Structures are given as C-alpha cells and as structure tokens.
Amino acid sequence: xKTDLDSLATALYVQxxxxxxxxxxxxxxxxxxxxxxxxxxAELVALAVMQALLGFTSEAxxxxxxxxxxxxxxxxxxxxxxYNKRLRKAAxxxxxxxxxxxxxxxxxxxxxxxxxxxxxECGRSRETxxxxxxxxxxxxxxxxxxxxxxxxxxLHLVCTLSGxxxxxxxxxxxxxERETLIDIFATEPALTVDRPxxxxxxxxxxxxxxxxxxxxxxxxxxxxxxxxxxxxxxGAQLFKPLRQVIESINETFKGQLDLERHHGRTPDGVIVRVxxxxxxxxxxxxxxxxxxxxxxxxxxxxxx
Length: 304
Description:
The chain is an alpha/beta fold. The protein has a domain at 110-259: Ribonuclease H-like superfamily/Ribonuclease H (Nucleotidyltransferase, domain 5), CATH 3.30.420. 46% of the residues lie in helices and 15% in strands. It has eleven helices and six strands. It has helices spanning 5-22, 41-54, 59-69, 80-89, 91-103, 126-131, 177-187, 190-193, 209-217, 236-256, 267-290; strands at 112-123, 139-143, 148-160, 165-172, 198-201, 220-223. Strands 1, 2, 3, 4, 5 and 6 form a six-stranded mixed sheet that branches. A hairpin with a 4-residue loop joins strand 2 and strand 3. Helix 2 crosses helix 11 and helix 5 packs parallel to helix 11 (267-290). The radius of gyration is 20 Å and the shape is globular. The relative contact order is 0.15.
C-alpha cells in the first residue's frame, strides 16, 4: 500500500463504508422519503479528514481547493453551507469512526497511557466573550506550559505513547483535570475493566490521595512527578523524556492539525472540529501501521 493522502482517504472511505453497512444507525438521521445525498456520509468524513491533514482551517477555501484538485476522488462536492451543516450532523459518526480505527491497531492494547489537557482557544476580544454562543461553556483559563491566559475550552486526552487517542473530553477551561479523568473512565468503564494493571502517566496536576485511590480501584497505576514537599516518587527518572512525549502529542494537534484555529463559533461547531482533528490523527496512525511505517504519528506523507 502507498503512503500518501489519496491512499489514506481511499482506505478510510472503504472502512467507513463497511462500518455504515454493518451499523447504519451511526449515519446522521434523514427522512426516508426524499432525495439521497450525492455525497455519501463515508465520503463526507473522508473529505473532512483530508481537510484537517492538509491544514485548511477555512471551509470555503478548502472546498475551492477540493473542486480544483480532488474531483478524481469526489465527483460531487457540496457548497460551504451544506458541507458545514452536514459535518455538524455527522459528529457522532466521526466519534465512532475514531474508535473503530483505534481498535483496529495493535497500539489499542498498549499497557501504558499518557494523560494531559491542552487549551482550545475560542476567542480573544472582550466582545467575542460577551456575545459568543460558547459563553457559559467556554471560560478564562491559564496555560502553564506556555505561560498565557486564554478564553475557551480544554481538550483532555488519554493517549498511548505513540499518540493514538484512547479517550478524550472537551470541558470548560477551569474544569478539574482529575475529576474530568475520572468522569472519562466512568463514562466508558470497558476501558479499564478489560485492562488490569494499566499504567497512566500524568503531570503534577494529577495528584491527591483520594484521586489515586479511585484510579487504583479501577486497576490503574498512576505515575507522576513529585510535587513540592513530596518525597521522590517511583519512575522519577522517566518523567522528563515522557513529558516531552506528551508535549509532542499536543504539538501535533496544535502545530500540524491547527487545533486552536478551528473557527468554531457554536458548541456543535467546536465539537465537530475537535472530533475532526482527533479522527485525522487516528486515521494517520492507523494507516501508517497498515503500511508498515516506523513512526506512527508522522503526518508528513499526508500534509501536501
């Protein structure tokens, strides 16, 4: 198999088409009577993944590019309003597709995870904060890694060391990282029930006796750096290189997949654009493994 964007899009389309044949309920609801869409749901999701991998943050510019360069893959392309509307309705399909691809890799069973949260900025001006549809969900927060305040959300990610997304949550900027992580595992108990002895690596924010007890009850061993005043913890010599792994995964989302340039203006719009980027990374890792690549998280073959 080739490692290029066309081959990834084709393989992804086939996988999604098969998924929808087995589980048609995953497709967005539409009336039984009426015209069938000329762009199928599988094609729509493949098109959205290509957009994220190629770095087009403007849907209008992306569709102009697709009309010029991608008609061999997509004989019909919608206009920007239709594309945006259908993409928002396909959020649940995109989420299921991410899990379908992740479980189709050998990395899904890795016994070491990393966890972290990263800002998803949603606005900068005071007028945006006052008038945005995201007000009430988006909040002011602080990013210690980059020493900056921001207004928006936080993406909480549980990944393998190779960067494969295992689980995630999108919360307000001030949400407690520990509570969010416990909620993630409570929402999907199968993640921990089937993995006794799982190791989870986090930063200093994942602390607390009660928190670690809750993780231990789920069969998860937490490794993190010692906080000020604490005795040195097990695995301390590993934290510096592993911290770089976590930051590198976040940088893939921000630097290559433009996570903070999502241009979402409503809750549904932000959610689907974050899901779009999670699926793009998952699809790239899935395809890299299928094609025998050495670096699973490399997007170089797909960004041009």
